[in-house]
Amino acid sequence: MITESLSFPAMNTYFEMFLWHHQTYAFLHEVCGEAQRQVLKLEQILSRYNVDAEVYQLNRTATEQPQRVSPVLFQYLEQSLRLCQQTQGLFNIGYCADTALTDCLHLDHSRSEAFFSDPSLQLDFGGIGKGIALKKIAEILDIYEIAHAFVSFGGSSILTKGRHPYADHWLFDLRNSEWDHPLPMTDSSLSISGYQGQNHHQQQHIINPEKKQKQHRHQLVVVQHHCPMEAEAISTALMVADQGQRQHILEAFEVEDLFLL
User: Fold this and answer.
1) Helix 54-61 crosses helix 25-46 at what angle (to 10 degrees)?
2) pTM reported for the whole predicted model
3) What is the pLDDT of residues 23-55, one digit of tens each?
4) What is the distance between the terminal CA atoms of the chain, rounded to a whole angstrom?
5) C-alpha span between 186 and 108 (Å, rounded)
6) pLDDT digits over 192-217, tens only?
7) What's the CA gap between 85 and 167, in Å, rounded?
8) Are 115 and 106 in contact (CB under 8 A)?
């Protein structure tokens, strides 16, 4: 058994990956190199702060006229619109807009173009970017036939493949006095939204798109789901969802496990 690990800064946090396999160190090093290249490539597309990033440029020009976007970004715009609809608008990459995202983000499939009909719309993939990256990592691990891996993005977005080298699963636990819910994970993902501090009024960071203000209904939301991208959208939406909205979201997605605090 050979192990390899990778750690580097990306998307305003740290990406960490641990692999084990019955291959050579050179092979696992190649896998890690490809993983890092793809994560940084996604960041170059999705960042709204990097002046060279595609989303940054789209935010500056898409209110003037339709803008052609790359196939990669167009795919994530489509998926984000779908997730917005499935969560009744609570997951929203354009939450600051005065108009509902589905009414002001217009996608032309034939031309691969995007247009903003509301000048206040600014796209922000911060609530799902790590999930998108983890989904890409899962594809890379499948291509290289890596059966066992643990991947963490800032400790709040997690992907697992197979099992720990000395157990029949990966075990997730959380440093929180009110958490007593260790999760055995194999071939699954996890998204954590919220915080562990005591003064949550000072730490609220997720905006309720309906009210255009920070308004958490929970201190902590942990979602286990087969897709890391969907897990991120679900956990973000559940942070601000009322009881009826929460029921709708849970019916729309196949959540493997859920913890609300």
Assistant:
1) 10
2) 0.90
3) 899 999 999 999 999 999 999 999 999 999 999
4) 39
5) 39
6) 998 544 444 445 455 555 555 555 55
7) 39
8) yes
